[in-house]
Write a structure and sequence with these properties.
By secondary structure, the chain is α/β, with parallel strands linked by helices. It contains 38 helices and 18 strands. The protein has a six-stranded parallel beta sheet with strand order 9-6-10-11-13-12, with helices on both faces. β12, α30 (about 675-690) and β13 (about 695-700) form a beta-alpha-beta unit. α2 (about 15-30) packs across α3. The radius of gyration is 33 Å and the shape is elongated. The chain starts with a helix and ends in a 12-residue tail after the last helix. About 50% of the residues are buried. The mean pLDDT is about 95. Bound molecules: thiamine diphosphate and magnesium ion. Thiamine diphosphate (TPP) binds next to α5. The site of thiamine diphosphate (TPP) has 19 residues, from α5.
């Protein structure tokens, strides 16, 4: 007969009738199995729905393991040896951090994260992570950033790192062989593949990486079918919008090559992730709702007999009602407290544990610390078809640290451990370090021929090698010279030949030409977040196809004939149309731009986006791309605070060039003409793909149409474009003119500098020079480099930068105008040999016509000419009392608002 709890929940139905229902359910399960029972229940649910009965929605399953122990795959490893290895890894990881902080206070590091996730990693290291080797393109493992000590510790046992490395954890500079705090390919280019410690970036990158593997396979570029992407996340990390923001892409794309493992230790830095709720249940609902396969690993094997005995579901119910903050309390409490407060709420539950001692209750483990449970979960995950899998593994933060941190709110930052606690840790994990030695925190490595070491190495050998390991390929591509038709055609080196166009159009021409190139074409990965039409690049849709893993299951509305342009989706498509998703598009850029290192094949991403939604929207992903040593081109379309005129404050970008300067491996350019763009792209391709430099590019491109001249036939022009400046044109000095204004222009605003030159000549008979400044940041980089050398080599012949050499004997005044904030041009002030006046677009943009906006920001031809006269006046070469008249003459309102404050 049913118990009172069931009778109460459906009160009003006669007990005998309820009994019948329950008996039927058991009978079907017993005779036909779970699959048939599922079908039947779904059918009954549909019937109820058709009769107007709405069932309450729940995306959750009970708070127990998804895989019942009777369905667990048998653990194939040697449990004892794996436990020994894991304990040694734990010890060395802990010792590394504690030692570092003992000798160098404030160096930092984390013990508790890896302490909670050691089993998650060790089971995967022994049985799942496959290295890149032979015909296997390798698994991509995104390690939780602050679990890095555990990865170093294992690499030490594997013989890949020495004791000296461990001693120099977080001390990279003095020894030159230190270990980076977190996974940084920039700092450890043969070890780490993926920077993950800015939380949320690893997760989103991993999704797009898994999709990129499919893209490579479907396009016939590389057989990536054996590769799996693994991402290890913290439960606190899941609060970052990037972490869960792209879940549906993974399920929509059926990325069963993707496995996430969330280390649910219920804590983040300050305290519980969800003290008053249940993070595992919350995540389960989110992932199930998004179409993922969810595997919860909540309880260790010790709980199996208890759950088997829980016939009426009271224990499961109790497990489900306790909130995370309270579970954390049980972690730090003794067995008696647990018995009384967890089991003691119901006499029947209490009875279930009466045969267990307090010590046993205290030590029964959570699922994430049980290798058998984790193995079963991994096995199920890698065999699941049609959807990505997330494993929600419940663990204890600071596991094994005892009073020194286990489950404590301060666990995250714990890095100093008293001797008594060290001894307890040593004893708990059975590390052969004596009491006398323990204060020195010695690292421990068993003999090479010990069973532990032999086992560890055999396992990794069977899985193709070590993980992580970054193996950048030395493949060099044959990059066409500048005289190739990719670069010579209209509107590039040849100019626009009487027509008009924008630099965005010029970029489109390069892309269209490049994808046709015999060897290079296939390597190009154009990435666009739903703006191809804005950039006039929709022609690429038909030309190279939009990648879609499903091909095209519909007839596109704009397909009027096979030859016309239309929205062509294809499984072999080359263009990644990411939708309105700059973060996702950046993640694709990173996957493609690092393929040379992670897949052994150079790919050339061109990510073209709305420039305003680049650096300030996904700036951290751009930083992550730099750390990843990405190659490729970021192209900020619709650049310029006044050139993108109608869109207003939140669209008009005038600061990307400034932020770009802050990314060390980024080369950023602000070209004005098609030929400049062609020169920059060709040189970029050469440096990145022919020379193998691990840098990437940022290009500002604009949407203003104008005529583009052919490239001037002077040798120094190409060099100037690449180095950042070249003289474009000069007007004759008037008689007796001692100083010639030097007018610097960038991007579309170069044309205002040219207008200023004309005004100066026509109205004031002053000759001047116009320079196209293609890159203030490159000029600065070179100047700083020379200065650095000079500072450290006093008494030796000083080096001279390109900027200094180019402006040698030029007196100025120097006037800079651009569609960027003034600081962009200000970055070279130190090396400008004279008066330097900078105009720029500081202040909020707004919608207006281009001429009005350019006047508002005082960057137009008239304001530039006026600035030149001011400069001359300061040098005593123009009568300053005439300046008010000049203002009048040029129609500049002296009482106009200051754009900076408007
Ligand atoms: C974007 C970002 N914000 C803040 C931090 C600082 N931080 C490092 S670890 C951490 C707590 C992590 O908690 P959780 O994700 O639950 O990982 P656990 O250590 O508990 O496994 C914080 C706040 C960071 N690394 N990245
Ligand atoms: Mg956590």
């Amino acid at each position: 007969m049913l118990d009172q709890a069931v009778l109460d929940t459906v009160s009003g139905i006669a007990p005998e009738e309820l009994d019948d229902w329950y008996e039927s359910l058991e009978d079907i399960l017993h005779r036909y199995g779970p699959e048939k029972l599922r079908e039947l229940l779904v059918h009954l649910q549909e019937r109820a729905y058709a009769r107007g009965v709405m069932l309450p929605f729940t995306a959750n399953t009970p708070y127990i393991n998804t895989i019942h122990h009777s369905d667990e795959i048998k653990f194939p490893g040697n449990r004892e040896l794996e436990r020994r290895i894991k304990n040694i890894v734990r010890w060395n990881a802990m010792a590394m951090v504690v030692r570092a902080n003992k000798y160098y206070d404030g160096v930092g590091g984390h013990i508790s994260t890896f302490a909670s996730s050691a089993t998650l990693y060790e089971v995967a290291q022994n049985h799942f992570f496959h290295a890149r080797s032979g015909d296997h393109t390798g698994d991509m493992v995104y390690f939780q950033g602050h679990a890095s000590p555990g990865m170093y510790s294992r690499a030490f046992l594997e013989g890949r790192l020495t004791e000296e490395h461990l001693i120099n954890f977080r001390r990279e500079l003095p020894a030159g062989i230190g270990l980076s705090s977190y996974p940084h390919p920039w700092l450890m280019p043969t070890f780490w593949q993926f920077p993950t410690v800015s939380m949320g970036l690893g997760p989103i990158c991993s999704i797009y990486h898994a999709r990129f593997l499919r893209y490579m396979e479907h396009r016939g570029m590389l057989d990536t079918s054996k590769s799996r992407v693994w991402a290890y996340l913290g439960d606190g990390e899941c609060d970052e919008p990037e972490s869960l923001g792209a879940l549906t892409l993974a399920s929509r794309e059926n990325l069963d090559n993707l496995t996430w493992v969330i280390n649910c230790n219920l804590q983040r830095l300050d305290g519980p992730v969800r003290g008053n709720g249940k993070i595992i249940q919350e995540l389960e609902a989110a992932f199930r709702g998004a179409g993922w396969n969810v595997i919860k690993v909540v309880w260790g094997s010790d709980w199996d007999p208890l759950l088997d005995a829980d016939e009426d579901g009271k224990l499961v119910k109790r497990m489900g009602e306790v909130v995370d903050g309270q579970y954390q309390k049980y972690t730090v409490s003794d067995g008696e407290y647990i018995r009384q407060h967890f089991f003691g709420t119901d006499p029947d539950i209490l009875k279930m544990v009466e045969h267990l001692s307090d010590e046993t209750l205290e030590s029964i483990r959570r699922g994430g610390h049980d290798p058998v449970k984790m193995y079963a979960a991994y096995h199920a995950a890698v065999n699941h078809k049609g959807a990505p899998t997330v494993i929600l593994a419940k663990t204890v933060k600071g596991y094994g640290l005892g009073d020194a941190g286990e489950g404590q709110n301060v666990a995250h930052n714990q890095k100093k451990i008293a001797e008594e606690a060290l001894k307890a840790f040593r004893t708990r994990f059975n590390i052969p370090v004596s009491d006398a030695e323990i204060g020195k925190l010695p690292f421990y490595k068993p003999d090479p021929d010990s069973p532990e070491m032999e086992y560890l190495n055999q396992r990794r050998e069977a899985l193709g090698g070590y993980v992580p390991e970054r193996k950048a390929c030395d493949e060099r591509l044959n990059v066409p010279e500048l005289d190739d038709k990719i670069f010579t055609t209209k509107p590039l080196l040849a100019g626009s030949e009487g027509g008009e166009g924008s630099t965005t159009f010029a970029l489109g021409a390069i892309l269209r030409n490049l994808v046709k190139h015999e060897s290079l074409g296939k390597r190009v990965v154009p990435i666009i977040p739903d703006e191809a039409r804005t950039f006039g690049m929709e022609g690429l849709f038909k030309q190279i196809g939009i990648y879609s893993s499903k091909g095209q299951l519909y007839e596109p509305v704009d397909k009027l004939s096979e030859s016309a342009m239309f929205y062509k989706e294809s499984k072999q498509g080359q263009l990644l149309e990411e939708g309105i998703n700059e973060a996702g598009a950046m993640s694709s850029f990173i996957a493609a731009g690092s393929a040379y290192a992670n897949l052994g094949m150079n790919m050339i991403p061109f990510y073209v986006y709305y420039s305003m939604f680049g650096f300030q929207r996904v700036g951290d992903l751009i930083w992550c791309a730099a750390d990843t040593r990405c190659k490729g081109f970021l192209c900020g379309g619709t650049s310029g605070r006044t050139t993108l005129n109608g869109e207003g404050l939140q669209h008009e970008d005038g600061h990307s060039q400034l932020v770009a300067t802050t990314v060390p491996s980024l080369r950023s350019y602000d070209p004005a003409y098609g030929y400049e763009l062609a020169v920059i792209v060709q040189d970029g391709l050469r440096r990145m793909y022919a020379e193998g430099e691990e840098i990437f590019y940022y290009l500002s491109v604009y949407n203003e149409n104008y005529a583009h001249p052919a490239m001037p036939d002077r040798g120094e022009v190409v060099e100037g474009i690449i180095k950042g400046m070249y003289r474009l044109g000069s007007t004759d000095s008037c008689e007796g003119q001692r100083h010639r204004p030097q007018l610097f222009g960038s991007g579309t605003i170069l044309r205002e500098a040219i207008r200023a030159q004309q005004i100066l000549k026509d109205k004031y008979n002053i000759g001047s020079d116009v320079w196209s400044i293609t890159s203030y940041s490159e000029l600065r980089r070179d100047a700083m480099d020379c200065q650095h050398w000079n500072d450290l080599h006093p008494g030796q012949a000083p080096r001279r930068s390109y900027l200094e050499e180019t402006l040698d004997n030029v007196t100025g005044p120097f006037i800079s105008t651009s569609d960027n904030v003034r600081l962009v041009a200000d970055q070279i002030r130190e090396w400008i040999p004279g008066e330097y006046i900078i105009l720029g677009t500081d202040g909020f943009g707004r919608s207006e016509t281009r001429p009005e906006l350019r006047r508002h920001f005082e960057i137009d031809g008239e304001c530039t000419a006026y600035a030149a006269l001011r400069g001359l006046a300061r040098m005593g070469a123009f009568d300053s009392s005439k300046l008010p008249d000049v203002l009048n003459d040029l129609g500049i309102d002296a009482e106009k608002i200051n754009p900076l404050n408007a």
